[in-house]
């Protein structure tokens, strides 16, 4: 499916019930397109939710600080609130840092930022879905693991929504280029 504002608007149908929508903002093209699209839809009146962003700085190297500054600049330009969470202690570990550990910590932080009025929007897309399925197959996941990334699921008091799962990365990148992102 080709990414467009209309298609994103349809993908956000279930998220509309949330009083607050928090965009997980890494600064990468996927989350930037999601944030940009959500803000455009909000400006057009298609979304009535209060919009803000959250950035998680893993703190494992200097580039993490550069990404944090980039995200802060983008959110300042958009005039939206950015909540920055810094994970501590990882820079002291010489071994044992892996994507699974970092993912668990991100979700722990996301959980602490959600209340019953909040939905968290994450920018996982169709290519991420395929990668996840292949990794789970390789690890010998059971039926539940092979279900892939869900479009929504509860997290603490809130709900995670992944409105980009129907779109491939190329379509998202094409939109980013067309919008000058």
Structural notes for this entry:
By secondary structure, the protein is of the alpha/beta class. The longest helix has 17 residues. The chain is globular, with a radius of gyration of 16 Å. It contains six helices and six strands, in the order αβαβαβαβαββα. α3 links the parallel β2 and β3.
- Straight-line N-to-C gap: 20 Å
Q: Rg, please?
A: 16 Å
Helix content: 40-55%
Mean pLDDT: 87
Note the run of SSEs as H and E.
HEHEHEHEHEEH
- What percent strand? 15-25%
Structural class: alpha/beta
Side by side, the strands of the main sheet go 3-2-1-4-6-5
Q: Please mark out the parts with pLDDT under 50 across 5 or more consecutive residues, or reply none.
A: none
User: How many H/I helical runs?
Assistant: 6
Number of strands: 6
Brief summary of the model shown:
By secondary structure, the chain is of the alpha/beta class.
List the helices and strands and how they pair.
Elements: H1 5-11, E1 20-24, H2 29-43, E2 50-57, H3 62-78, E3 82-86, H4 99-113, E4 118-121, H5 126-138, E5 152-155, E6 158-161, H6 169-178
Parallel strand pairs: 1-2, 1-4, 2-3, 4-6
Antiparallel strand pairs: 5-6
Helix pairs in contact: 2-6
């Amino acid at each position: 499916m080709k990414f467009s504002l209309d298609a994103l608007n349809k993908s956000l149908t279930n998220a509309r019930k949330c009083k607050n929508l928090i965009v997980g903002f890494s600064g990468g093209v996927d989350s930037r397109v999601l944030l940009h699209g959500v803000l455009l839809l909000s400006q057009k009146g298609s979304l009535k939710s209060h919009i803000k962003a959250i950035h998680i700085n893993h703190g494992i190297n200097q580039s993490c600080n550069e990404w944090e500054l980039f995200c802060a600049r983008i959110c300042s330009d958009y005039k939206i609130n950015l909540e920055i969470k810094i994970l501590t202690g990882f820079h002291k570990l010489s071994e044992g840092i892996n994507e699974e550990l970092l993912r668990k910590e991100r979700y722990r932080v996301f959980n602490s930022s959600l209340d019953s009025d909040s939905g968290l929007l994450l920018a996982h897309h169709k290519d991420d879905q395929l990668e996840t399925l292949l990794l789970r197959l390789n690890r010998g996941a059971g039926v539940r693991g092979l279900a892939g990334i869900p479009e929504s699921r509860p997290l603490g008091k809130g709900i995670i929504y992944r409105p980009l799962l129907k779109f491939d990365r190329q379509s998202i990148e094409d939109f980013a280029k067309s919008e000058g992102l």
